[in-house]
Specification:
The protein is 27% helix and 31% strand. With 417 residues, it is of the alpha+beta class. It has 3 domains: 115 residues, Aminopeptidase; 151 residues, Aminopeptidase, CATH 3.40.630.30; 100 residues, SCP2 sterol-binding domain (Nonspecific Lipid-transfer Protein, Chain A). The strands form 4 sheets. Strands 1, 2, 3, 4, 5, 6, 7, 10 and 16 form a 9-stranded mixed beta sheet that branches. The relative contact order is 0.13.
Length: 417
């Protein structure tokens, strides 16, 4: 299925947009559905984004009028050291008078078909609650969580530790040079080295974070210098409040450097607070805990589109987990009640086979489709899922094996769109 594809469905026309004129119509439609401003961002993505030729803009039209649309946006996650191409669903909307008629389901059918065709075994989105869970998505992995910093509390950061607040050797400047951008890439990878799943530092990251002109998000990256040496960076933007500039990502820095960053943010903000989007697993969290409120925020909603393909991509991850254990020679099955996955370890080397169907024999784990991301993405333990969802069933004598293969780990995938 290619860009430009068209098909008539029940008196409507399904299209994958191929022209600027179509994108302009989609942009105007999104402004109508979601509010002014989003259309401008869509036009920028279409014209400038590094993956613009691999972005699919799907819509339904009736009587030359768009009535529903969504986009398939390419992204990359790093999962346990493996780069995995994923689909991100964005810009979903249906005209008010056509809601409740199954139009999203029609678009989603084509969206998933295209994603699988393009080798994307995972679909993610950041959308409204409840709606997508009915369509196989589950909440897994953090997003939009972090610390709410009140500007009147920044000076309290050194309540127990002495900080030189007048130190003039620490400077903050725009990220502009090739050397700056390479430093950001290295620092980004280093900061997230202990996270199981992260957003890969690919062409999408610089486009979003080094480009303050793409939208009203005011995305910008700053380099922190001390004695003319680069020691860290942070990116800014506004996610929910157009008046508030937040820190979208920050590298690991000392408490003293963090104070200077917070003071800088206080000066450029017009609000009495701002967010720093990190998890409480970051080392600088211990400084922020003194002055800021931790907000658990939202989570990615994810769906595994091709389980067998994904498990084969992650073979080396599972082999590392099993290495040196008593499970280096074992064969077993897991099931999502629709598909059987056979995992066969031979002296620590893994082969994965998948087949349609359901079986009770030799199945050590049965777990519904919409709960799979929670274990494969290491977001929850088997026991945690089973406690809340009894239809996640495992053989108790294989719990050691399952704990080894599917541990609970910290992750921090940020967004590129």
């Amino acid at each position: 299925m290619k860009i430009g594809y068209s098909e008539e469905i029940d008196g409507m026309i399904f299209r994958i947009a191929s022209t600027r004129e179509e994108i302009i119509k989609i942009a105007k439609f999104n402004d109508m559905v979601h509010g002014e401003g989003l259309g401008k961002y869509i036009l920028k993505l279409y014209a400038e984004h590094p993956y613009r030729d691999e972005t699919y803009w799907l819509y339904l039209q009736k009587e030359d009028k768009i009535i529903s649309s969504l986009a398939l946006l390419k992204n990359y996650w790093n999962i346990g050291g493996i780069t995995v191409k994923i689909a991100e669903m964005g810009f979903v909307g249906t005209a008010v008078e056509y809601r409740g008629r199954g139009l999203y389901s029609i678009l989603n059918k084509y969206y998933e078909r295209i994603a699988i065709q393009q080798g994307m075994s995972i679909s993610t989105l950041r959308g409204i609650p409840n709606f997508y869970s009915k369509r196989g998505y589950s909440f897994a992995l953090p997003t939009d969580m972090g610390y709410k910093v009140r500007t009147d509390r920044i000076d309290r950061i050194d309540k127990t530790d002495r900080i030189d607040k007048t130190k003039d050797t620490i400077q903050i400047s725009d990220c502009v040079s090739v050397e700056d951008k390479e430093f950001v890439r290295r620092s980004y990878v280093k900061t997230l080295k202990d996270q199981y799943i992260t957003t890969a530092f690919d062409d999408g990251f610089p486009y979003r974070n080094f480009n303050s002109s793409i939208s009203e998000f005011h995305d910008r990256t700053y380099i922190i210098h001390e004695n003319d040496y680069r020691i860290g960076f942070f990116t800014t933007g506004n996610l929910w409040n157009p008046e508030q500039i937040d820190i979208i990502f920050i590298s690991e820095v000392s408490q003293e450097v963090l104070y200077h960053i917070l003071s800088y943010m206080k000066n450029i903000n017009r609000t009495d607070s701002f967010m720093i989007y990190i998890t409480d697993k970051f080392s600088i969290a211990k400084y922020l805990n003194k002055i800021a409120e931790y907000i658990t925020g939202w989570q990615w909603q994810s769906k595994i589109l091709d389980l067998t393909y994904l498990m084969r991509l992650l073979v080396s991850v599972f082999e590392k987990r099993i290495s040196g254990t008593a499970f280096e020679n074992i064969e077993f099955k897991i099931s999502n009640y629709r598909e059987l996955i056979t995992m066969r370890f031979d002296n620590g080397r893994l082969t994965v086979d998948g087949e349609r169907g359901y079986s009770e024999t030799e199945v050590v784990l049965k777990i519904p489709d919409n709960l799979l991301p929670k274990i494969i993405f290491a977001d929850k333990t088997i026991e945690e899922i089973n406690y809340l969802h009894p239809d996640c069933i495992y053989q108790s004598d294989k719990l050691g094996l399952l704990r080894t293969l599917f541990p609970k780990l910290a992750s921090f995938p940020i967004f590129n769109y």
